[in-house]
Amino acid sequence: MPNDARGSWDGSRVASRAWTAGVLAWLLLVSVYLFLLGSSRYLNLGMGVRDLGFFAQSLWNSLHGSFLAISFYPHATHLWGGHFYLSHVLLIPLYALWPNPLLLLAIQSVAVSLTGWSLFLLGRLWLSRPWMAAVPVLAYTLHPGVHRAALGAGIYGGYQPDHLIPPLFILAVYHLARHRRKAALACWLFGLTVTEQYALLWAGLGLFCALRPRTRSLGLIMAGISMGWLALATLVVIPHFASGKWPFYFSGFQGLRSLAQPAGNGGEVWPRLISNVLSMARPFGYLPLLDPFTLITLPAYVAYAAAWKAGYFVPLIGNSWHNSAIIPVMAVSLLRTLGGMSWLGSRVAPHLRERLLVGAVLAAATAPLLVTPGPMLPVLFGQTPRDFTPLPPARRAALDEIRRRIPEGAALATDFFTGSQFLNRRRLQLLMDGGSNAEYVLVDRWRPGGGLWPSEGAALRAVEEEPGTVRLVDREGFLLLRRPLKGSPGRAGK
Predict the structure, then answer these.
(1) What is the value of pTM for the model shown?
(2) Which of 114, 130, 264, 494 can pair with 16 through a Cys bridge, CB separation 3.0 to 4.6 Å?
(3) What is the Cα 228 distance to its own chain's centre?
């Protein structure tokens, strides 16, 4: 396993319990903070349909007879036509109890704190002092990449099951370090079911374990099964649910062939990749870069660089859910360094390591807070002021009226952001994709940041020019149109 070393906590039990209570209180605060900002962004139309809508609508449709069906998925009509999110089915009973997309944002916020708690458990095992175990927790939960991904800092995001990977990964490391193989295997197997793309991460952990004679067989089994799971998902499951098409991200193979070239789509990839590595390591004082455990991220970075070359830039921009394959590995490497297990940590006297290295991590983690304090905190972590500005009551009332005017079974086409409020529908389409089969069309013309996108505006004009289209609601910037159904002349005017 990554390391068997154990710290011996000195000091009284009272001190250790105090630090444990403090860490738990801090993690509770982090979860509440992320959920409040995320829910505010969602409720105030600052969060788009993708990717939150994929997961929310698939749960809603599963409760209404269409297992994991999605009406606006760009890859297929089934959630598993894009990625094999096997464990997503476990959320169906929870969504039955609270059928609201906010449930997914709550789960995502809790996952961040669970990762922090997993780090604390590992720190208690490897570090000598209770306060030292709290330092990596603080560094992780203040990491801008963690916050931006959890809040969906770009137009995409909102919710991704990928955020379940970090706590499962660190817990697997923790149980392996304590020689609890069954618990470690449970975390690993559950992690495989979150989504198939992280099989590379789990295979990397297996290969790292295989470097030590004591865990060689276990590590090889983990690596082999992980790659087998990836093959099963990409060659069998996903094509089955995508009408025979290969996974959309297979286009990244084109980028692999061009990685050695000096330039490609989107400009030079190598400076972007180096910048991403440094930004992921910066809140940890760059210490993870000195530990070989960080090499587990190499397959992910190769895939992200290939994706960049193929024209998919999201993984390397630093605020996406793809951080889930990078940041937890660096957090474990940080613990190894603080515990004297890395090349640097083993060459520094313990008292200097505790003071100098911990001081470097604290400075790196808290420096952004000193530069942009107070009200700028949400902006620092991936929000903009309009994202959490409350929707005026008049606009909220107009939206509620529109919701009542649209029959539950009718097809609805919306703009990218307004559609996030109508995810519990079996037939939802996006104007940016045409929305040609929808009877009802809804747009927000007062949307902050420039109104409708060009593709949405063009689709709206086409709908308005159709004979028989009528305006049902034109209020507070929201426009609801009803168009005639094909084959039913005059339907719209009834």
Answers:
(1) 0.90
(2) 130
(3) 24
Residue 15 CB-density burial (10 A; 0-12 exposed, 13-18 middle, 19+ buried): middle
Which CA distances in Å does 420 have to 63, 79, 159, 163, 273?
19, 17, 12, 20, 32
What DSSP assignment string belongs to 19-56? HHHHHHHHHHHHHHHHHHHHHHHHHTT-S-STTHHHHH
Within 348-433, strands assigned E span 412-414, 428-430
pLDDT by residue (tens digit) across 420-440? 999 999 999 998 887 667 899
Distances (CA, A) of 228 to 177, 265, 324: 25, 31, 21
Surface-to-core class of residue 401, CB atoms within 10 Å of its CB (0-12 exposed, 13-18 middle, 19+ buried): middle
Whether residue 382 contacts residue 148, with contact meaning beta carbons closer than 8 Å, is answered with yes
- Decide: 405 and 472 in contact? Cβ < 8 Å: yes
| CB proximity list for 292: less than 8 A, separation 6 or greater | 342, 343
| Amino acid in position 70 | I
Read off the pLDDT of residues 71-83 as tens digits, 9 standing for 90 and up.
Answer: 988 778 999 999 9
Q: How far is residue 233's CA from residue 478's CA, in Å, rounded to a whole number?
A: 42
Residues of the chain with pLDDT under 50: 8, 10-11, 264-266, 345, 371-376, 379-382, 488-494
Which stretches does DSSP call E strand in 102-203? Answer: none
| Strand 428-430 relative to strand 440-444, pairing | unpaired
